[in-house]
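During the practical work, I selected for study one protein's amino acid sequence and its backbone structure tokens, as given directly below:
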Amino acid sequence: AIDTDRSQAAQAGLRVLAVAHRRLPEAVDPQDADAVEQDLTLLGLVLIEDPPRADAADAIARTHAAGMRVLVVTPDAPETAAAIARQVGIDPGPCLTGDAIDAIDDDALTQALRGEALVAHASPTHAVRIVDVLQQRGEVVAWAGSGIHDIPALRAADLGVTRTGRGTEAVRDAADVVIPDDLLGGIVLGALEGRRHRAAVSHQIRTRLTRTTGVALTVIGGVALGLHAVVLPLQILWMHGLGDGMAAILPSLPPRDVAPTPGLADRRPAPQGWVRAWTPIALAGTWIGGSTLGLFLTRLGEASLASTAHAQTIAFTGLVALTMVHQLVSGRFGRSLAAPGEATGRRVLLAVGVGAAAQLAAVYAPPLQALLHTVPLSPTDWRDLGLLCLPLLLSAGLLAIRRAPPRPQQTRASRHAA
């Protein structure tokens, strides 16, 4: 009956302590636990309710949405740990115990830890072994805890996180990060902040590599075809300066409550191979370089100075326009054009306006015409430039549709209520 009561209380998420007593004979050493813990008389069970935080379920849901697994490692009994896990939205399946971990090797433990695992009756030694096994598999492990028994795991993990106001100074010294409140929520916010910075840096690198690829293919293609200089060195410097100027106007990071790309908070960033990383750069760079050469060849005509200047001007303007369009639509800034009232949208519109005005001045302002060796372009030239920019706009739109998070499905009841 006592064991049944204990099991029922544990399954309800209560911690259960058994209280017993024994009058020790003088011959028994009080320091010998095995000798002391015999012939005990049970006095009763003490039930302790330690419910999860009110926002724990929401933090677990955000952790899942961010692509992170949650493993529960606790010294509590298996029934108590499983009940608490279910209350916060974790379905770990079969429960491991510390004794079971001692009986299996690392390969078997690796298999047991796939998915969301629950480990009960775990000691600090078990926790450190779990961290080591996960790291050997290539996992990045963050350990959240505020007890003395968490210290070894906090030190062994890639990121140890604890809370202010909980635990001892030794626990805070062992942790890498000490946050004031919700442990899981802090880990999720930190991960999303890192993804924001990673996406912003990746966008800048892709933009610069694509621009460089387009210029290189233009110059190399012109040399291979035996053409006169398709674009002049000073024009290339102007293009790079214009691109860097737009990058300075554009915000380096989106607002903290906006993910850099749709669904970024719901996707776990995975390492990209060379083929996957370079294919978009090669395709966009080839289109930019090929389009620039095409514009030059169609306007070259007779080998006259006027014809050459016209061909160089439209090639130069095409190179600038194509790289500007790619810089805007290849990342998160293209979506901001649809929201010009927001701070990010206003800065994007400002960058577009400054870039367009600068290039128009390069083509039509007499001082810049003399400096850059340009001539005025006709409406037909601008039409052809717009048509060549259209594939970049369409590809960016298709990619945005593909990456957009799925819309929640409405049930019949919710549609009726609406």
User: Anything to note?
Assistant: The chain has 18 helices and eight strands. The two ends are 53 Å apart (CA to CA). The chain has a mean pLDDT of 80. The first helix runs from residue 2 to 11.
